[in-house]
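Repro:
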Amino acid sequence: MSRIGNAPIVVPKGVTLNTKGQTISVKGPKGTLDFTVPDGISFTHEGAEVKFSRASNSHSHRAMHGMARARTANMVVGCSEGFKKVLEINGVGYRAAVKGKNVDLTLGFSHGISYALPEGVSAEVTKDGKLVLTAADRAVLGQAAADIRDFRPPEPYKGKGVKYENERIVRKEGKRGKK
């Protein structure tokens, strides 16, 4: 029994959920998102609730059951409220600047890095140097944040690099002289 897949999704006011065949489309103040439910998973849309069920108890159907419900719930939340990821940039001379649909990063390399933001993702830099990414699609937002972090992941000795806001870096001591 899937605990995630069996939980109903309540659609809040201001968000419309339309179904056509196996496709679910959600429209809200933050945008419009679509998702095609995999075969073997069925859903019912009654009033403001959506419920998912699976055709059999096979491993693949159990996995797709929870995934389909979670993707749809993320679409509902994303279209109504949106998602946000905050990246901290630590290091002397390390900084980010937003220019149109690009994020220009200076991360200690001999050249600057220009990252083109995916469709639907917006960015801003706060006064304390944090890069705030916002989007309606949680998967696209997470991938954009991971791509930016991969340019210079935090190193364990001084903690320099790009890290998520609540990420904890395990610090190492480094070399010491003989005693």
